[in-house]
Design goal:
By secondary structure, this protein is of the alpha/beta class. It is built from 9 helices and 14 strands. It has helices at about 5-20, 20-30, 35-45, 65-90, 110-120, 135-140, 225-235, 250-255, 280-290; strands at about 50-55, 60, 95-100, 125-130, 145-150, 160-170, 170-175, 195-200, 220-225, 240-245, 255-260, 270-275, 295, 300. A hairpin with a 3-residue loop joins strand 13 (about 295) and strand 14 (about 300).
Length: about 300
């Protein structure tokens, strides 16, 4: 259905209300006053309503006029946003950028990058998700995200851009009050079979799940993130390997204690990854910034000093 309420008419109403007169609105819109009067009169005629109370000296909106203006201002904002988004897309910037952060990664440096990006491109909507183990590759492979930060190990197939961040060192840690702390080190795997292992569940939906650091033949407590795993082991609910940089404070304060096992666990490589078909400037910007960062064994992801 045709509506006489046009963008031009709404801009005219808005200018009159803000400037408090038809003449001032005409000056703002670079028109003659008669053109402003005609626009409003034509709108009133087409709608069959009065938009202004002309019994007053200054332009005062009627209740109907106020309703149209208040709702119309939302339309004006939306059209401005649509115009900006169209220009943004034409320039190669994404309207939405989906970033997957692996549970291993410390998020503070990523938040710093996001803060910088918002100043550069505030209209790109950023969506952050957290995945575990193969779940990061799964999200990227199934096009549920555009960029992964902290992907573990090798990709499931070809077609991905990859940049190695570094290697994560894992240590076997238990609560400071755990019975294992009284045992002579290095501790054999057989000696810890009476205690549950806390494991983080792989969040893959389509790809085969990955497992890491499991001590087979023992009861397990499965949690959804590294953060929950750390909390469970501090409580003494179970034992297991933890990324050393994530528990530096807990080790220093003594809430967790590192123990040596007879069999050690190798470090895990972590990378940033994106699809080679990704051409958006947002992905390119984040990749460029992340290439300048390093992974430190003691403090995690950070910019080089």
């Amino acid at each position: 259905m045709y509506s006489p309420i046009t963008i031009d008419a709404l801009r005219t109403l808005d200018a009159i209300d803000r400037r408090r007169s038809f003449a001032a609105a005409a000056e703002e819109l670079y028109r003659v006053p008669s053109a402003i009067s005609y626009t409003i009169s034509k709108l009133e005629e087409d709608l069959g309503v009065e938009l202004f109370d002309r019994s007053r000296r200054k332009a005062e909106l009627t209740a109907v006029g106020r309703l149209i203006l208040e709702q119309g201002r939302q339309i004006l904002v939306a059209t401005e946003e649509l115009t900006a988004l169209a220009k943004q897309t034409d320039e190669g910037w994404e309207t939405e950028l989906r970033i997957c952060i692996d549970s291993l990664i410390n998020c503070e440096p990523v938040y710093d990058l996001i803060e910088q990006f918002q100043k550069l491109q505030p209209r790109t909507e950023l969506r952050l998700t957290e995945e575990v183990l193969g779940g990061s590759w799964d999200a990227l492979n199934s096009e549920q995200c555009d960029l992964v930060i902290g992907a573990e190990g090798d990709p499931p197939s070809q077609g991905f851009g990859i940049h190695l961040l570094g290697q994560v060192e894992f240590v076997f840690a238990v609560s400071a009050s755990h019975p294992l702390t009284d045992m002579q080190q290095p501790i054999s795997l057989q000696a810890i079979q009476d205690y549950p292992t806390v494991v983080v569940t792989d969040s893959s939906r389509y790809l085969p799940v990955r497992s890491t650091g499991l001590l087979d033949g023992r009861s397990r407590i499965a949690v959804s993130s590294i953060e929950h795993k750390i909390a469970a082991q501090i409580r003494g609910l179970g034992v297991g390997y933890l990324p050393k940089f994530r528990i530096k404070k807990e080790l220093e304060e003594g809430t967790l204690k590192q123990l040596m096992l007879a069999e050690t666990r190798s470090p895990r490589s972590i990378s940033i990854a994106w699809r080679n078909t990704s051409k958006g400037k947002g992905v390119q910007w984040f990749v460029s910034q992340l290439r300048q960062m390093v992974f430190d064994q003691d403090s995690g992801l950070q910019r080089p000093k």
